[in-house]
Amino acid sequence: MQSTWLSVLASYLHVIAVATYLGGSIAMEFVLGPAQKFIPPAQAQVIGQKSADKFLMLVWGSLILFPISGMLLFFAIGDQHTVSGLQFFTTTYGRTLFAMMFLWVVLVVNGFIITFVYRPVLNAKASSKGGSKQVNSNLEKMQKAAKNVSLITRIDLGVALFIVLLGVSMVYGNGIL
User: Fold this and answer.
1) 131: phi > 0 → left, psi -120 to 50 → alpha, else beta; which?
2) How far apart are CA 85 and CA 81, in angstroms?
3) Which of 48, 83, 92, 104 makes a 20 to 30 Å CA pair with 123?
4) Residue 126's pLDDT is what?
C-alpha cells in the first residue's frame, strides 16, 4: 500500500457515497413510496416532490463522488499494474473494474433521465386553462412519469447492489468477471 492516509480517506468517501446512494434509494422506494399511498394524493405529490428534490442532490453528489473516490483508492492502493495495457480486459480484476465503470455510466444516464425528463413533468402544476381534457392529459402524463421513475429507481437499485457486489469481490479477491 503506497499511501495509507489517502487509501483511508478514499475508502471512507467511497463507503459514504455508496451508503448514501443505496440507503437513500431503499428508503425512497420501500419506505416513502408505500407510505404515500396512505395520504391524500395532493399531499403525497408535495411530499414526493420535496423529498425527491432533496434526494436528487444526494444522488448526484454520490454519483460524482464514486469515480473521484474510486480513482483515489485505485492509485492509493497501487493497483495500476493489475490493469495496465491489455490486462484491463484480460484479467478478472480489469474486467470487474470495467463492469463497475460501465454500470456507473448506466446510473448516470438513468439519473439524467429522471432529473431532466421526468422531474419537470412531475413538477408541473395541473392547470385548468385547457379544460378538463387538458387536465386529464396532464394527469396521465404525470402518472406515467411517476411509474417510469419508480421503474428506473428499482433498476438503479439493482444495478447499484450489483456494483457493490463487484466492489466487494475486488476487495476480497481479484474480482468475479
Assistant:
1) left
2) 9
3) 104
4) 55
Q: What is the largest CA-CA distance in the chain?
A: 67
165 in any annotated domain:
yes
Q: d(Cα 64, Cα 82) in Å, to the nearest integer?
A: 25
- Domain housing 99: 4-171
pLDDT in tens, 146-175: 889 889 999 999 999 999 999 999 888 878
Total of domains in the chain: 1
pLDDT of residue 1: 44
E strands, 40-164, are none
155 located within any domain: yes
In the chain, the percentage of residues whose pLDDT exceeds 70 is 90
